[in-house]
Amino acid sequence: MKIQNYIKGEFVNPIAATWLDNYNPSNGEIYGQIPNSQQADVELAYQAAQSAFPSWSNTSLATRSKILAKIAALIKDKIQLLAEAESKDNGKPVSLAKEVDIPRAAANFQFFANAITQFGSEAHESVGLNAVNFTLRHPIGVVGCISPWNLPLYLFSWKIAPAIAAGNCIVAKPSEVTPMTAYLLGEICTEAGLPKGVLNIVHGLGSTTGQAIVSHPNIKAISFTGGTETGAHIASVAAPMFKKLSLELGGKNPNLIFADCDYETMLATTVRSSFANQGQICLCGSRIFVEETIYEKFKKDFVQKVRQLQVGHPSDAATQVGALVSKAHLEKVKSYITIAEEEGAKVLYGGLEVTVPGYENGYYLQPTVIEVQDNLCRINQEEVFGPVVTIMPFKTDAEALALANEVKYGLSATVWTNNLNRTMQFSKQLQTGIVWVNTWMLRDLRTPFGGQKASGVGREGGFEALRFFTEPKNICIKY
Ligand code: NAD
Fold first, then answer.
1. In angstroms, what is the span from residue 146 Cα to ligand 1's centroid?
2. Exposure of 217 by Cβ count < 10 A (0-12 exposed, 13-18 middle, 19+ buried)?
């Protein structure tokens, strides 16, 4: 099938008619094509967004809210179609897409349908000066939203929903690796009555389509989720043009396990936080540090549980670990296992490709557990973003904290303990944007979401996202 760009509410071919192949990771076959949109296509999308802006930015909050809620409802109605499309594009189990990705995409639209009706601005009375200040928050104009392949519709909608709720018009680009549900979202938006041009979706490579969005002189803000290197490049283009930037980047998240935790809950959750979505979630805990007194027990129990994980075709209901997203990514993940071994680490389980009968050319890899001696080895310092975790013991709280922070990234951390003092100390001192204690990936959409250090700049979620997508203007009135 040929995917088309969604511009001004219509599906259109790219102007220069250049196309890219789209692969199904579960069998390695090409199953469609997407446009590799060029600057002229992005310009067309920009013009559509710009012409929709005056009307959309003046549309009442009640109407915007109603349309967003309708999009949410339609996503829910089409859950099976969207889950299957997501799985075919990405390799993730259909069951996971049905339980997590698609419901969450609907929740993003529903959340911002509600949030925009509760979003206020500030007022300050300048006591003694006979003046009052109030702040207007206006939409920015045309904004760019660029998202990655790991949670395609979920992360795409996490940007689009607040941007349009706040009254902006969008030129958006999903990952070229997973374009399908973004394409389907175009149909849904039309059906929901979103006015033409409010959301425009252009497909293509980062270096062509993405670059054209980021460097467009009149696209005034960029909301980006993806790799740290790409984020740095985008910042280098957008910052001198004084664009507003939100960057959600890579991670190398620590999972700190103390002997006093609720062991069984920790164990089951740690299997999930290591291998959910084939370990391709920016929040996965890829560095597991375990208190020495329970290290040997944890090692044995964890490996035993990981061994039981069912690797298989994404549409098989029994599958817990599906295919990796692409051949290139599979090769990258495998190369890190080799690097770890060369650096003296020990593979406790996994490390090998899996042949799924009938799908021999799919990109399947065993969930992999590696024991490391040193936190400074490459596998503990560089983002692998696959079904690979490392484990390492620690003796004291101070050592655990130092190990957790000894990395350039700072997205999230998980702490397993029942000690309140330790919980508070770690919550304060971990250099991450998110800390989970005795849980993982429990999400409340009102909370600020994002990372410190090389994991990003700015926060998404709740009113933070609505603040990002609006320009504050202070008015001072003297009386
Ligand atoms: P990527 O950086 O390769 O690509 C992300 C998006 O940016 C894609 O749409 C891509 O086409 C586009 N892009 C690439 N080069 C560009 C350029 N020069 N200009 C504009 N756009 C460009 O990342 P990926 O491989 O798709 O995704 C995996 C990465 O995303 C991992 O590092 C992961 O940690 C990160 N991620 C972060 C979060 C978070 O919330 N912090 C969430 C999910 C994924």
1. 8
2. exposed
Q: Which amino acid is at 407?
A: V
Q: Is the ipTM of this complex over 0.90?
A: yes
- Determine phi and psi for 318, rounding to 5 degrees: -80, -10
Q: Is 248 a catalytic residue?
A: yes
Q: Whose CA is nearest to atom 20 of ligand 1?
A: 210
| Cβ partners under 8 Å of residue 202, min gap 6 | 5, 7, 35, 37, 41, 42, 45, 171, 172, 173, 209, 213
Distance between Cα 427 and ligand 1 center (Å): 28
* Residues lining ligand 1, Cβ inside 6 A: 146-150, 155, 173, 175-176, 205-207, 210-211, 214, 225-227, 230, 233-234, 248-251, 282, 383, 385, 411, 451, 455-456
Q: What is the pLDDT of residues 369-386, one digit of tens each?
A: 999 999 999 999 999 999
Matching residue, tokens 């040929």: 2
Distance CA 430, CA 229 (A): 23
Q: Is 197 helix (H, G, I), strand (E, B) or coil?
A: coil
In sequence order, the β-bridge partners of residue 371 are 346, 391
- Amino acid 469: pLDDT: 98
Q: For strand 123-126 and strand 169-173, is the pairing parallel, antiparallel, or unpaired?
A: unpaired
Pocket test for ligand 1, best of 230, 234, 236, 282 (most atoms within 8 A of CB): 230
3-class secondary-structure state, position 406: coil
Which spans in 78-195 are helix H? Answer: 79-90, 94-96, 102-118, 152-165, 180-192
Average pLDDT, the chain: 98
Residue nearest to ligand 1 atom 9, measured at CA: 175
What's the pLDDT at 39? 98
Over residues 33-61, the mean pLDDT reads: 98
> Which amino acid is it at 160?
I
* Catalytic hit among 86, 248, 460, 464: 248
Nearest CA to ligand 1 atom 39: 248
Which residues are CB-neighbours of 232 under 8 A, at least 6 positions away?
Answer: none
Nearest CA to ligand 1 atom 35: 226
Residue 17 has pLDDT above 90, yes or no: no
For residue 150, report the distance from its CA to the centre of ligand 1, in Å: 9
Task: Tell how far the Cα of 384 is from the centroid of ligand 1, in angstroms.
Answer: 14
Q: Summarize pLDDT for 98-152 with one digit per residue, the tens.
A: 999 999 999 999 999 999 999 999 999 999 999 999 999 999 999 999 999 999 9
Q: For CA atoms 138, 144, 148, 153, give the dihedral sign.
A: positive
pTM for this model (two decimals)? 0.98
The two tokens of residue 39 are 């600057």
Which residue shows structure tokens 């559509």? 48
Give percent helix, percent strand, percent coil of the chain, each to the nearest 5: 40, 25, 35
